[in-house]
Design a protein that fits this description.
heterodimer, A: 395 residues, alpha/beta, Rossmann fold, Rna Polymerase Sigma Factor, Chain: A, two-stranded antiparallel sheet, 31% helix, B: alpha/beta
């Protein structure tokens, strides 16, 4: 079931392919606009979200799932654009760690996204055309501020848990610092309190690939029939490598050739790994907007919880009532364990309630999306323990 | 594993040295268990003494077992991860059978009495007569029930006797409030600093300590 709401318009949400997402979409910021970090005021603006499970009478069993850079609100499938399963089917559902028989799962498309929430692909009400680069630059804090308006709208005083991996983990940490009294538990997975120089560098390559595509047209490609698909595909290919581990790539592809016995002495996709990456790039552009990619990667780059606390990360968490559980993966070199450990040390410095597990995995950063039994068991145990402390019971 | 079990079962299942440690902890206090293993002591303290407990554990299997059972435990080690905690953050910092495995036991002890108003330390006594006798008779590194590793693979790199520990406490300004020693039969006896034979007849010691203050 989904959350009842009189304000739901359930209108088709425009995105990369202007598909009918058949999900919830509400209008936020109509009475008071959302003041963004960049100084611009946004509102009214649409926010698209999905819910799974049932909200209990006390409204105490809600879990907000925060999606990563290229994720969206469709935690469970089928995805309205691709028809594929949702991105976290392995984690969410009856009997899964995020058990929909117990919890009310909420996931919204982030601000700047392209699946129905306000973003550069969305129509600017002033011009009637897609914003393009006229959309204000948004931050992780802005994304979370918009989510908080959604939680207000749903009438939930306190989320039982906020959980997410990668950029989703950044949102979790932002929730814990912006609205600590509104969440009981926080689970940032494979994440960081600030985007590292290396990660900013990889994002910059992706953005340059998009902006170097002639079809990008200074961000105004929506006015033509073309889209900077080649640039966006290259951006995805680069990023995809960072989500895997060297070992995983080697094991999966090695030096195997693609449908041929010998190399061609040319520049076709001779190797399986090349073919795989090209496929990743091509399938990505079917569902994602190039300008959205620019905006969301920028939001991640700007994220630094210490910076806004005079360089002192522990200051962000002083007197926090939140129960934290941080999880990292041994082979993740994009958000390595040291990033999680920095957050753990900051939480220790304010004697916060924190658990931290580094999971042995050779699946790289993407491990948080995959079948890792140790990870799932840990998460389930933490949620059970937190539920006990929160006084949540199920018949 | 006592986690989640009824109180009386927890009591029965707790290892004898852990039970002595648990008896030193006031109900309702804040406890950090360094080297908490599978969380048996933390779970017991939480259920029986309503303690607000946290743990630090080096092994992934240990941490995962703890978190799976709803305990607040981080993966870390005594040598590097105690520095992050603020002073007086806990009522008790517990280090069970781990001091001898740290790289810098002196610093660890100092950190423990900084972040905890009290610390509880237990360790195997290398002055125990069986250890001495084995070295004397065989001429080889002693292996006992408590110290069961070959010399080349033991994690116990900084073994000490009761006397050594007492002298370290004195040197770094740590006051021993209470001591309990276990004899070879596992029976616990109150430790008195003036006693002549504890260092010879105890296989392990458990000490409740705090940092020296102006009243000492």
């Amino acid at each position: 079931m989904t959350a009842p709401s009189a304000k739901d318009t359930s209108r088709p949400a425009p995105a990369a392919k202007a598909a009918d997402h058949s999900g919830h979409c509400i209008e936020l910021g109509a009475n008071a606009p959302l003041r963004l970090d960049c100084g611009t005021e946004l509102g009214p603006f649409p926010l698209a979200y999905q819910t799974y499970g049932t909200l209990n009478a006390e409204k105490t069993n809600a879990i907000l799932v925060c999606h990563a850079l290229t994720g969206d609100q469709f935690v469970l499938g089928p995805h309205p654009v691709t028809g594929k399963p949702g991105w976290w089917e392995i984690m969410v559902g009856p009997g899964r760690p995020l058990d929909t028989n117990r919890y009310f799962i909420i996931c919204s498309n982030v601000l700047g996204g392209c699946m129905g929430t306000a973003g550069p692909a969305e129509k600017n009400p002033e011009t009637g055309k897609p914003y393009g680069l006229d959309f204000p630059v948004i931050t992780i804090r802005d994304m979370v501020a918009a989510q908080k308006l959604l939680i207000d709208h749903l009438g939930i005083d306190q989320l039982f848990c906020v959980i997410g991996g990668s950029m989703g983990g950044m949102q979790v940490l932002q929730w814990a610092t912006s609205y600590p009294e509104r969440i009981f538990a926080a689970v940032p997975i494979a994440s960081s309190a600030r985007h590292s120089a290396q990660n900013i560098a990889f994002h910059e390559i992706g953005r340059q690939a998009i902006m170097a595509d002639r079809d990008w047209k200074g961000g105004a490609y929506h006015e033509s029939d073309d889209q900077p698909l080649r640039g966006l595909a290259v951006a995805r290919m680069v990023a995809h490598i960072t989500y895997l581990s060297e070992k995983a790539l080697q094991q999966k592809f090695g030096r195997e050739l693609q449908d041929r016995k010998d190399v061609t002495y040319g520049f076709e996709a001779d190797f399986q790994v090349e073919s795989y990456l090209r496929h990743q790039g091509i399938s990505f552009v079917e569902r994602f907007d190039a300008n959205s990619y620019l905006y969301i990667t920028r939001a991640m780059d700007y994220f630094d919880l210490a910076e806004v606390n005079e360089g002192m990360l522990p200051q962000a968490f002083v007197n926090t009532p939140v129960r934290f559980c941080l999880i990292s993966f041994t082979s993740d070199w994009l958000f390595p364990t040291s990033e999680s450990r920095t957050v753990v040390h900051a939480l220790n410095a304010v004697a916060a309630n924190v658990s931290f597990v580094e999971v042995l995995s050779d699946k790289g950063h993407d491990a948080f999306l995959l079948d890792e039994p140790e990870f799932h068991a840990t998460l389930e145990g933490f949620l059970n323990g937190a539920a006990e402390h929160r006084g949540l019971t199920w018949s | 594993m006592v986690v989640g079990g009824p109180d009386h079962e927890g009591q029965a299942a707790l290892r004898s040295d852990l039970r002595i440690v648990a008896d030193m902890v006031e109900p309702g206090s804040r406890v950090l268990d360094v080297g908490c293993g599978d969380g048996a002591l933390l779970a017991y303290l939480g259920h029986v003494k309503q303690v607000d407990g946290r743990g630090v554990e080096l092994s992934q299997s240990g941490v995962n077992a703890c978190v799976r059972h709803g305990l607040s435990v981080i993966q870390g080690d005594a040598d590097t991860d105690l520095k992050a905690y603020p002073s007086d953050a806990f009522d008790y910092v517990i280090l069970g059978q781990t001091l001898q495995a740290t790289r810098n036991p002196k610093e660890v002890l100092q950190e423990m009495v900084r972040i905890g108003r009290r610390a509880i330390v237990s360790f195997p006594n290398f002055g125990f007569w069986k250890v001495r006798l084995e070295l004397l008779m065989t001429g080889r590194m002693p292996m006992t029930d408590v110290l069961s590793y070959e010399w080349y693979e033991t994690p116990n790199i900084h073994l000490c006797s009761l006397k050594d520990f007492i002298s370290l406490c004195d040197e770094v300004g740590v006051v021993i409030e209470r001591g309990v020693v276990l004899n070879s039969g596992g029976r616990d006896i109150d430790f008195s600093p003036g006693g002549l034979f504890a260092n010879l007849f105890s296989r392990e010691g458990i000490f409740l300590v705090r940092r020296r203050d102006s009243s000492d």
